[in-house]
Design a protein that fits this description.
Three copies of one chain form a homotrimer. With 108 residues, chain A is of the alpha/beta class. The first copy, chain A, has two helices and eight strands. In chain A, α1 runs antiparallel to α2.
């Protein structure tokens, strides 16, 4: 955690942004770099009978850090993803809870 | 948004229902057609040591519209999915929050 | 439901644990065996410009059964997954709500 779950983006483009993005999120959030995971989801999208491409869509699973930090994380994602050529980005945050998140047998 | 995330259904069957389903959900929910995404997830399911097939399972990520609209969306999904031959459908809704959902740098 | 969504684990290893794991969870949770689904997600993980492997990560979607049952489920997942050779496991629980979970047209 935080888990960045990315849809609608080429793997190669995710690779390009992965280091500078995590460097920046590490500074914004203040948690160790190796807490982050970036997941590239292999699903397909369908509209009106056809496979379609979508704009990058990012789900962030994390412990809530408040609106201000969240705004900064969304802005960083927007900047890095549009920086490799995408025109639009949607990002949403899902707050997980310490009592429901386990490292091995112990929750946080 | 709304995001329809579908597991346990063939891509071709999803393509068949995609247009009439979104037409109907657009009427029920009252948001533009191009807000919808339909995602076909490529994961596999496993039970008792073997890969298994599952009944269609739909996760809907959206801003909560109340129980009545939600009931209508679930009924529409049920009708369209059983209409192409599946016997049973499970649908669940995950409410996202405007303050946590960003279009580019701005949340709703 | 409960839905076990597993990332970072080989399909063959998931198959090995699938029967004894569900046997044990069935006893802990007290719901029928065939309510469980185990999903093996096919996404890839990326860090610092490279594809990486991650430690097994399990998301459990369920109706909340309280902290004590949840602790036992996490412990069972930890035991079965480390039992086939993985060194570390992260497990998190997402509580779904009866009024938002539909079997066909009817919610729970």
């Amino acid at each position: 955690m935080p888990q960045l779950i990315i849809k609608g983006m080429e793997h190669e483009e995710i690779k390009k942004i992965s280091k500078p993005l995590v460097d920046e999120l590490h500074r914004i959030i203040g948690c160790p770099r190796d807490y982050f995971t970036i997941e590239a989801v292999n699903s397909i999208f369908i509209m009106d009978g056809e496979q379609q491409s979508i704009n990058p869509l990012v789900q962030v699973n994390w412990f809530d850090r408040g609106q201000q930090v969240q705004d900064q994380v969304a802005a960083a994602l927007y900047r890095h993803i549009t920086g490799v050529g995408y025109g639009q980005v949607e990002t949403f945050f899902v707050a997980l809870h310490e009592s429901s998140y386990y490292e091995n047998e112990k929750h946080y």
